[in-house]
Amino acid sequence: MFKSIQLDLRAYGELSMFLHAESLPGMRPVSNNELTAVIRIGQDYLDNYYEVRIPLQVTLPSQTATAAEIWPELNQLKLALQDLVALKLRRNSSGHPMNEIYREETNGETFSVKGNPNLGEVTSLLIGVENTNSAQPANFEVWADELGLSKLNEHGGWAALGRVDMQLADLGSVSLSANTYSAGFGTLEQGVNERAKNSMMQFDASATIDAGRLFPEKAGISIPVYASYNKTVLTPEYDPYDLDVRMKDKLRSYHTSRERDSVKRMSLDQTTSKTISFSNVRFGRPSMKPKIWDISNFDFSYTFSSIDQSSPLIAENSIDKYFAGLGYTFNGKPHFIEPFKRLIKSKSPWLEFIRSFNINPTPSLLSFRTTVDRQMGIYTPRSVNLYASGAEVDTAETTFDKYFRMSRDYNLNWNLTRSLNLDFTANNLSYVDEPYGYLDTKAKRDSMWHNFWTGGRNTQYSQKAALSYNLPLDKLPFADWISMQYSYSMNYDWVASSLLSKSLGNIIENGNSSNLNGQFDFRKLYDKSKFIQAALDTTSMPSLVDSLKPEDKKRLDSLIQNLPKRKEVVKGLKGRERKLALRNWRAMKAAIKEAKVAFNRKQVVRTSKAVSAAVRLLTMIKSISVTYSSGYTSRLPGYMDSTKALGENWHSGQPGLGYIFGKQPTKEWLEAKARDHILTTDPYFNDLYRQTYNQNININAQLEPVPDLIIDLTLMKSFNKDYSELFKDTSGTGRFEHLSPYSAGGFTVSYAVLHGIFEKPKSGQVSKSFQRFADFREVISGRLAKNNPYYSGGVDGDGYANGYGRYAQNVLIPAFLAAYTGKSPETIGLIEEQNKSIKTNPLGHIFPMPNWNITYSGLSRLGSLSSILSNVTIRSGYNGTLSMNSFTSSLNFQDRLMQGMPSFIDSTSGNYVPYFLIPNITISENFSPLVGVDITFMNQSNIRFDYSRSKQLSLSLVDYQVSEVSSTEYSLGFNYTRHNAKLPFLPVPKKSADGVGNDMTFGLDLAMSDQLNSSTTLDQTNNYSTGGQKVISISPSINYVINNRFNLKFFFNQTRNIPYVSTTPPIVMTSAGVQIRMSLQ
């Protein structure tokens, strides 16, 4: 019998088991001691195990056999586990080979050991029977029962801990702590095998001190110091190489104290850590007025930490870390100089732009920091030969984990003017190369320090700069209604190549982004005209203004001067009288102020209703906001030059300040760099040059042609593109080639189609728009052939120009757009046929069109409706987009004569291969809602109605299908609230203190949506439905307010889903219930 186990038997004293043997009926009887039970325990069954052999006594068949006869005492296994350990020790001391079995016989039983088994990690158990009479075969039956462990080793352990914390006045604090426990220690809930198998001693000491307190306070010295020391020693109870041999027994087997000390030292698991840190050390107090040369701007930091570890399996594992940093930080206060403010005395707003000119000579932030970071890691494992007598231990080869880094950081933030801000950051990382291994010779140390004092080997340089400018248009009287912000940011990165592949060159990357935000407040512009202001003013002037005369100026001045102050009005008054007096005083003050304003106008401008309506229509644009952003990035591998200040090699002038500050490379720029021999010519170089571009445009406008009619217009465009190529010397002669050019990107634009959105698809019949699409292809084919200088004339059998057949991509897309937008195929824009630059968009001729959201809320103010209706809102919104989710370039595109048109005709399709491959075009439009009405009556009841339409068209250039999803949706909602309602089954509560009564709200929501999915394939006479459904839902509810803490709601919801295809079953979902909501506030 074999069994895999995971046991630790060291906590047990005895292993026992009952054995029974008998002969099989009708077979040769087996005699006593002819069979031997074999029990093996250890790490495996063949090489590392303890073995016990017990000669078996055979029980004769009997109807009256006792338990002692069935389980003879001589057959019982009663094994003291320590006897096995002692056997192994005797074997080791005798010099017997460990890979050969070693046996001893006691009381007829044989005990054996082979290899180096241990009772601390028993993984294998074998129980077998051996026929000792090999001359004759034996037929028998053997039982093994109740294999068990007993005589637990329950010796306990002890533990202690202590801690001392000392506060050294305002100098700092010191903490000391110690912790120890012995083998056998454990908590009450832990089992014997869970208790500690080793003794532990731990000591910790730490101190936090401000050494600057030792100097005079006026010196302003700050020296924060932190120091700590920690040591942990684990002393095992058992030999770590022989887990069932106690260390005291193992040490007794050695004859000299030197050997015993060596073995004891290797058995310990020790960890020692030390740290000392000086953080942000500063000298001198900062002056009241910051100066760039103040010594307090400097700071210094230094940290040393060390961890040393050794264990039975690790001879040395130490890591020493050194960190030092020197920094300079100047935080300046802006000091804006306005040179023309005193020269120009005039207060004219037309001169304000010049008068407010300012410049700030002081940077807001100027900082520099250099840090040195070094690590020295040494790792030496032990090599343990467990098959040697007593386990031979040696050390393996030492490995090193070390680095020596130097980093420099630069930061500059400068408000050059109140409107212009500059932000610059840079980082340089270099490595100090060290010889391998210990620095145990003068030559090695000199090599390291030489590399250090020369600044190390640059491995990475990164910088970012940003310039933001708020145009001071508010200083120009004719443009103060415009606010505009522009920002430009750039980044540049240089990354060194690996020392193993220096011939492949370094990598440089750059990027830039531009952002423009503009707001045009036309209301402020209109307010500059008194005529427009009066025409747009719908309010009437108070009676005081109507009776105003020019000779009343003195009376107004007298009223203003004689108006009592607030303190005098309320003097001696309290409560209600004080409030009433204040209210009358404020009303008088406001009336006099309004009359004064009207007087200063000299004359109130009056306009007729027709003129006001015309002016309102001409000035319906109220505001416009524009957001534009664009960004470029490039990545050039194989760059062989180095980097100096600002990332530029000033000796060679590479890569150029233009590239460093974000200018994007062109084909000519790349070829110039190749001629300058700064690009790698390694034949194994295969890294791609990459460039990206993204552009986003958002325009929002608000119009109000008549009062309460708000029209919000939005325009949007989003375009992104990636370009890559392999630019390399393929011949080894310095002649570089542009290989495998590849482009990919996406495009989305706001669009307004409106043509055919109300045209409902009919199953089995193609739509008129699709029929136009099919007919327009021939016209587009002719236009493309006429524009292509490679076209040789002729048409195919279907009447299409050769090279531009009925399924050519550049034929289908313009025809699709013309047919579904109602435009002429003679004037619709065509697809771009070449990649002129990274900004080239295959659908660049498509400009964004406005989407809108219309809201009118003025009906409730008309005549008698104002007494019935509290609020009426009519809404209508449209959102449409045209998107090309992804496009790629064709590797088969050819333009032999550089004419900007394709010259290669694919032999399979018979069409010219375009540069851009577009898998699909999607047009999505949505009236959400087409009409929406929200009416609130004076009794707070409410009615809502929405009618929405949507359509999504998708042209697939893979299977030449047009997929259409058309949807119509109606929704109706009603709410009515009855105050002080009573439910017969609920007690009537008293009205709460906060005025919350028993309101009952009845609600009803009805909705119906009809969606149909269809697909039509080109050159087929019908379409077919691919999906769709009709959904009807009803949701009545009653909400009852019991009091300000309890709310009761009865609800019912039902939704019916009726599919249009037979593969989907109809679904009805119904839910109803009562909801009780309780507030605990």
Automatic annotation (TrEMBL):
Annotated InterPro entries: Cell_surface_SprA, SprA_N_dom
Gliding motility protein SprA N-terminal domain location: 2-251
Protein name per its UniProtKB record: Cell surface protein SprA
Primary gene name: sprA
